[in-house]
Write a structure and sequence with these properties.
This is NACHT domain-containing protein. Residues 50-59 have a biased composition (Polar residues). It is a single chain. The chain is 57% helix and 5% strand. It contains 17 helices and four strands. Helix 1 runs antiparallel to helix 2 (67-97), helix 10 runs antiparallel to helix 12 (327-336) and helix 10 packs parallel to helix 13. Mean pLDDT is 76; it is low at 33-72.
Length: 416
């Protein structure tokens, strides 16, 4: 091959790779901006299931295990590789274009072939990622309530799991090759919130790095792949997706240098308060590889109730007049049975009472008359709507459930 042909080939390779990557960088930036904007733009839903939030503590994107950070890290790494390749191809192009300079055409062509192969691989990667990406991919993850500050600290301490005879240490299992750990619990006990917390916990990545060397064989260079997904639409049967996932797992068996860790939330989600029998049979046999959330969150519930009530100005004034209101914290914890969602609802009810200048006796009556069963709570709320407005309310609920983002109030004006 002569120098002119080599120059033309190098130029084409350079232009192809650079154009492809510039397009990908723009798409990556747009996706990250959209995702991060969604995290700021979607405030806690203004209903009784959402605890008060501290406006002075905005969402953080710093944890090493956060989904956005891992996405950015991968994109930045690939961007650096593309830029290095661009510089290298540019140098080769200049060598070929310098008149009177003796160059080794074969050596340069070999390097161009390597560059072409890298460019094709990068392009294939982006084609695959584009096929896998969809608009609502992070919808459930974004809407899961962020953990209250200070809770779930027991996840780090193996001794804490002694409070739940049916649970095993999470981090000990995380370092075990091939282990499956099942996070289970009552409806509304905070399973998804715990899963989101674990996905953003730097200690998880640190423990996984301990796990990978333990599986090394002499001379192997292992690659750790961490991924998470939060299911949110219960009841869909997607046979093609299930088969595709199975094919991926079958393929990974032929790649011994790739170590996978998946955090998947919502697989066993159902309207029932009991886990599916399929999950009980598959994962319930080994107490060291499962966790019952409601057995370990008693102190977390007390912390949440205390922090939420005591930071309310009206409750502080009530406490100065009648210190017996503090006893409500322990009573709520005793009645919660590990169901965090119930705790949020009753705390919001008590805060409403405090705002209405209820006495401690009134607050205690609120607590005593509040149903302990979530279904009874929801039923009471739904049937408290005037029958005349129930059809319209149901329509509003349906619009809210099917929307992909928080709708402005004016949208509901047009629903009628």
């Amino acid at each position: 091959m002569d120098a002119i042909t080599a120059i033309s080939l190098a130029s084409n390779i350079f232009s192809f790779i650079w154009d492809k990557w510039r397009k990908f960088e723009s798409e990556l930036l747009a996706q990250n901006v959209k995702r991060r904007a969604a995290k700021f733009a979607i405030p806690p839903a203004p209903d009784k299931s959402t605890p008060p939030q501290n406006d002075q503590n905005p969402p953080s994107f710093e944890p090493a295990m956060s989904r956005d950070c891992s996405s950015d890290s991968t994109g930045c790494q690939r961007s650096d590789e593309i830029r290095d390749l661009r510089i290298h191809l540019g140098d080769l192009l200049r060598q070929l274009s310098q008149q009177g300079t003796k160059v080794d055409i074969d050596a340069i062509m070999a390097q161009l072939a390597i560059g072409s192969e890298k460019g094709a691989r990068f392009s294939a990667e982006q084609a695959i990622l584009s096929c896998l990406c969809f608009d609502t991919m992070d919808y459930r993850y974004i809407t899961v309530t962020k953990a209250h500050e200070g809770i779930f600290t027991w996840i780090h301490e193996p001794a804490s799991f002694s409070a739940s005879p049916g649970s095993g240490s999470f981090f000990e299992c995380l370092e075990s090759p091939g282990a499956v750990y099942w996070v289970s619990g009552k409806l509304g006990s905070g399973k998804s919130t715990l899963m989101k917390c674990l996905c953003e916990l730097p200690a998880v990545w640190e423990r996984l790095m301990h796990w990978v060397p333990a599986t090394c064989q002499k001379g192997e260079q292992l690659q750790l792949v961490f991924a998470s997904f939060f299911f949110w639409n219960v009841g869909l049967e997607v046979a093609e997706l299930v088969q595709a996932i199975q094919n991926i797992f079958d393929h990974t068996k032929t790649q011994p240098t790739i170590k996978l860790c998946f955090f998947i939330d919502g697989l066993d989600g159902s309207a029932s308060s009991r886990p599916w029998n399929e999950f009980e049979k598959a994962f319930g046999g080994n107490v060291l590889q499962q966790l019952w959330v409601q057995d370990l969150t008693r102190d977390d519930i007390k912390l949440f109730v205390r922090d939420t009530l005591e930071k309310d100005r009206n409750f502080q004034e009530l406490k100065e007049d009648d210190e017996s209101c503090i006893d409500l914290i322990q009573e709520i914890s005793n009645r919660a049975n590990g169901v965090f969602l119930w705790v949020r609802l009753i705390v919001n009810s008590l805060l409403q009472g405090v705002t209405n200048a209820d006495s401690v006796v009134d607050l205690r009556r609120r607590l005593d008359t509040f149903p302990t069963d979530l279904y009874e709570v929801f039923e009471r709320e739904l049937f408290s709507v005037d029958p005349f407005y129930r059809q319209r309310t149901a329509r509003f609920f349906q619009v809210t459930l099917t929307s992909l983002e928080l709708l402005p109030l004016v949208c509901y004006w047009f629903v009628d």
